[in-house]
Amino acid sequence: MASPCGAVLRRHAAVAVLRAAAAAGDLSKGKALHARLITCAHFDIVLHNNLISFYAKCGQVGLARKVFDAMPFRNAVSGNLLMSGYASSGRHKDSLALLRFFDFVLNEYVLSAAVAASAHVRSYDVGRQCHGYAVKAGIAEQPYVQNAVLHMYCQCAHMEDAVKVFDNISGFDAFAFNSMVNGFLDRGQLDGSVRIVGGMIGEVENWDEVSYVAVLGHCASMKDLVLGGQVHAQALKRRLELNVFVGSALVDMYGKCDRARDAQYVFDVLPEKNVVSWTAVMTAYTQNELYEDALQLFLDMEMEGVPANEFTYAVVLNSCAGLAALRNGNALGACALKTGHWTHLVVGNALMNMYSKSGSIEDAWRVFVSMPLCDVVSWNLIITGYAHHGLAREAMEAFHCMLSAGEVPSYVTFIGVLSACAQLGLVDEGFYYLNTMMKEVGVTPGKEHYTCMVGLLCRAGRLDEAEQFIVNNCIGTDVVAWRSLLSSCQVYRNYGLGHRVAEQILQLKPNDIGTYVLLSNMYAKVNRWDGVVKVRKQMRERGVRKEPGVSWTQVGSVVHVFTSEDKVHPQMDQITVKLEELIDQIKAIGYVPNFAVVLHDIEDEQKEEHLMYHSEKLALAFSLIHTPKGETIRLLDDCKKYFEQMRTMYKLKLTFTHYWCMANLYGSVGLPEEAEGLLRSVPEDLKSRALGGLLGLCRFRGEWGTGEQIALRSFGGESKGPSMQIQYFNGLLNDRLILGNSEKEKTDDEESETRNKKSEYTDEQSKPYEACLAFC
DNA sequence: CTAGGGTTAG
């Protein structure tokens, strides 16, 4: 029997049950009650609102909406409940769309929800309108509204507006400070975040855990390990280091400050690890070049049953990129496809990066065209990827596509574009991009761009202009720019300028081996042996040594890394036996042992050992033991890394020898496509000689057909006629060794050394591998 | 019957 009093009682009971069901997440209990209420209850706004609240908390925002739509009268509470329902299921757009249907006055609750939704969808316009409404309604000063507005301006990248709101707040409010720090960090405005963090330091006792995360993010961006350590100490004091958010932020901070071990320690003590903390520690490893450890952690994570997300895939793919581990990268790409993460922007970008760094620009392109959406990073990857691979025309074409797609080029874009211009010798275009277009899009040229321009001028043989350019643009203290000029001086045999440049560089006291090699070579060319002595002396003083060689290969799913004189590999005995066997075999067919070219003298008795323990040889012997007959062995080492650095980062003018060695290395480890691709990028003036390297390889392997094809293709449409090409190829067949035709082929390193000592050093290090492959 | 900010990628 329904009486008014009974109805009220029942309504109170129903509200209590709904709240309990919502707290327990018990959808069916609440639904059953709803069904009963429809038949017998007296419905008012409060009961309706409770139903909305219940459905929203159970994640059934669609049902909550049905209740809302069916209400005869609604109030601000109904609106707010529905909006927060949409917010918690991430449907911020739908939440904003509701505003048009609200037939009641918006209060501070609804407005802060609306402003928060605008922040989520990054809609400055809607957010500002809401702010205006709040000002008119006189509730803009309410703390919740004010903070939501402040956060909205930060998210929508209008820091000027945010600062205005921020300045209006009196006293210390953790929320406001946190939003400001994160806003500045997202925009990369470190000066701004320094100011805000400065204001927070005296208020540590008022920080909440989000403050720790924000300030740690600031330390990570600034690489401020001193402040970071202090924040860590404060977190320990308040037992916050075990909080998964704070812990992950600490891991990230240590990783970005180059402290991988500290990052690992923080991670290890975390009692609850989620996918973010796992990914953060993997990132720390990757950024500190501990790629194998990062990949191992990925497996550990899988073992723990924590599913990877798109960021995880991005990180492990970057580890693969660092290792040039094409097979792992491919497999991880397949996993990402299977788990549905492939379509994420970050995964696509990481895949492109991996393929590009592993030498397969075609695959990078395939990923690029199949990505559902791309951003400026994707375009940069494809442009710089093409430029890296010596495909400057394709790089320029991609750049023009980018412009017509309406994407705004960034700092990185112009590095790729200018280096492509340098490869193509497009001086005027280069200056147009530097002086006109970069201004138009608001990118301030940096050292990298100026260095590209130096390379461009050098490439065009305008060495004096290049020198002037260095001086005019105040990059005279940059060793890289001078190095670029110095190597060009050698190419163009301008030893007068070269000598001057060498003196300049010497004054800068560089600390990398490559520069000293160039310098000593330069002095040797002009017969200034006093200069060579000076270079050696400075090198010793600065403690510059040749870096130990590292090579790696993949057998099954494991990447094995070898260093020179490696003695720790568990299968070292087998490897040594195999290696001795191989060396005996190739000695029998006329191989004369060569020695690694180093700048330091090797004692006679150590020579044989150096030969034996050279890292590439170890990796090769290992691969041969473990790889089925006929399968391709992929062996990569620092040569590739150094080569790419010389070519792209330092913008060095490479000599024929560099290309030859690299192509030969690729060929000898079973990557003839890479060798061919590389040789296609050889500058015109060096082409015929570099081509000889690849043809020689074909000859060595008895691949006549391939050799002929390469000869035809590489010369096709260019200066020489077909018959000449074949003749050239055939002519090479008669030489026992390709390098036999010139004494200039010695590596730049040691030319002076060889001249003095008439020693047995040559650059034919790759030859034994060819022989090995011919045998096995 | 109602509310805010955070960690991982290039």
Automatic annotation (TrEMBL):
<dbReference type="InterPro" id="IPR011990">
    <property type="entry name" value="TPR-like_helical_dom_sf"/>
</dbReference>
<dbReference type="Pfam" id="PF14432">
    <property type="entry name" value="DYW_deaminase"/>
</dbReference>
<dbReference type="GO" id="GO:0008270">
    <property type="term" value="F:zinc ion binding"/>
</dbReference>
<feature type="repeat" description="PPR">
    <location>
        <begin position="375"/>
        <end position="409"/>
    </location>
</feature>
<feature type="repeat" description="PPR">
    <location>
        <begin position="274"/>
        <end position="308"/>
    </location>
</feature>
<dbReference type="Pfam" id="PF20431">
    <property type="entry name" value="E_motif"/>
</dbReference>
<dbReference type="GO" id="GO:0009451">
    <property type="term" value="P:RNA modification"/>
</dbReference>
<feature type="repeat" description="PPR">
    <location>
        <begin position="44"/>
        <end position="78"/>
    </location>
</feature>
<feature type="repeat" description="PPR">
    <location>
        <begin position="512"/>
        <end position="546"/>
    </location>
</feature>
<dbReference type="Pfam" id="PF20430">
    <property type="entry name" value="Eplus_motif"/>
</dbReference>
<keyword id="KW-0809">Transit peptide</keyword>
<protein>
    <recommendedName>
        <fullName>DYW domain-containing protein</fullName>
    </recommendedName>
</protein>
<dbReference type="InterPro" id="IPR046849">
    <property type="entry name" value="E2_motif"/>
</dbReference>
<dbReference type="GO" id="GO:0003723">
    <property type="term" value="F:RNA binding"/>
</dbReference>
<dbReference type="InterPro" id="IPR002885">
    <property type="entry name" value="PPR_rpt"/>
</dbReference>
<dbReference type="InterPro" id="IPR032867">
    <property type="entry name" value="DYW_dom"/>
</dbReference>
<dbReference type="Pfam" id="PF01535">
    <property type="entry name" value="PPR"/>
</dbReference>
<feature type="compositionally biased region" description="Basic and acidic residues">
    <location>
        <begin position="742"/>
        <end position="767"/>
    </location>
</feature>
<dbReference type="Pfam" id="PF13041">
    <property type="entry name" value="PPR_2"/>
</dbReference>
<dbReference type="InterPro" id="IPR046960">
    <property type="entry name" value="PPR_At4g14850-like_plant"/>
</dbReference>
<feature type="domain" description="DYW">
    <location>
        <begin position="590"/>
        <end position="638"/>
    </location>
</feature>
<dbReference type="InterPro" id="IPR046848">
    <property type="entry name" value="E_motif"/>
</dbReference>
<keyword id="KW-0677">Repeat</keyword>
<feature type="region of interest" description="Disordered">
    <location>
        <begin position="740"/>
        <end position="767"/>
    </location>
</feature>
